[in-house]
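Notes from the 1:1 (GR / supervisor)

We went over the backlog. Supervisor wanted to see one worked example end to end before approving the batch request, so GR pasted a single chain during the call. The sequence is below; no edits were made to it. Supervisor asked that the structure be written out right there so they could see what the output format looks like.
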Amino acid sequence: MNVYDKANELARALNECEQYIEYKKVKESLTDENDKKIIEDFRKLQIEAYNEQMEKGYLSDEMKRKLQDLHVLASKNAKVNEYLMSEERFGIVWADIMKILSQAVDIK
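Structure output shown during the call:
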């Protein structure tokens, strides 16, 4: 068995994965610049929140409020919500695969 052949097989399987196909389709359908901005702002705030959590060990009330406000805004926008949900579904598949691979070679 050639590990590179298996890696290429996995790559093909990912490209045919229902969750990836849906994510890619939804991502390509995002044409409105305002929708893209909401997603970009959401990502930036997630990174800020992650950094704050790592630095302080907790999230400030202000950060919690910002995240909640942006989450409400994103969930009210059908296209943005659809994108974030499809991204999350594919992210679960991706995380599961990474977990399987990490366990196979004992990487923590």
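Supervisor's comment: The chain has a mean pLDDT of 94.
Batch request approved.
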